[in-house]
């Protein structure tokens, strides 16, 4: 599979290089609140839009984690980055693992923010209908975001999250990515992988919180460690950007 150089921008000019992959509900603008807390002198962050999102909203594709990984590697090639770390939020965390498998000599470490495990994320029938229906129904997106942040945010915050999700993703891509991040399983390929991994989970995330990290990622990656952010649910880049930036740069700067 040949990757495409997707729309992206680089924040910072530092020697530590990081590819950043967004979540299912947001394009690269979902990291806007985080940028102001990042150290651009020590780090360079390349934020990119997956096919079907943001400035790549009209890009056709298979809309799979493998494709996200290939596209991200194409962006790294375009930037001349031979080695780098990968930060992936939610489904971006699953794609980051594909990058590691495809380019093991280039991916120095992974930061998974509320990351989907390599085994995917099983959903019961009712929950599957809720998630699959979110491609067409903004109300489903709102319910999912509200639930995965512990029901702690008001209408204004939820409106912003839903409006961005609807306006900056196309329905076909949104629906197809669900199959890839939730139902594909390659965890046998990542078992005992020595790549350093930081897992950042929100204390109020009932789906991809600490318990899920302990049962999946921490079982498979011997050099993984977990940090829990007390004030966050599933969306630390938006909920607690300063705390997330501190955790990420402490890890990447080691």
Secondary structure elements and pairings:
Blueprint: E1 8-11, E2 16-21, H1 32-35, E3 43-48, H2 65-79, E4 84-89, H3 91-102, E5 107-113, H4 125-133, H5 138-148, H6 155-167, H7 171-183, H8 187-190, E6 197-202, H9 210-215, H10 217-220, E7 224-229, H11 236-239, H12 241-252
Parallel strand pairs: 2-3, 2-4, 4-5, 5-6, 6-7
Antiparallel strand pairs: 1-3
Helix pairs in contact: 2-3, 5-6
The radius of gyration computed from the alpha-carbon positions, rounded to a whole number of angstroms, is 16 Å
| Number of beta strands | 7
User: What is the CATH level 1 assignment?
Assistant: Alpha Beta
Query: What is the count of distinct domains?
Result: 1
**SSE ordering:** EEHEHEHEHHHHHEHHEHH
Please tell me the CATH architecture by its name. 3-Layer(aba) Sandwich
Terminal CA distance reads 34 Å
Total DSSP helices: 12
Summed over residues and divided by their number, the pLDDT gives a mean of 97
- % residues in beta strands: 15-25%
Parts with pLDDT < 50 across at least 5 consecutive residues: none
CATH topology: Rossmann fold
> Within the largest sheet, what's the order of strands?
1-3-2-4-5-6-7
Helix content range: 40-55%
- How does the major sheet shape up? 7 strands, mixed
Structural class: alpha/beta
Give the overall silhouette. Answer: globular
Under CATH, the homologous superfamily reads: Alpha/Beta hydrolase fold, catalytic domain
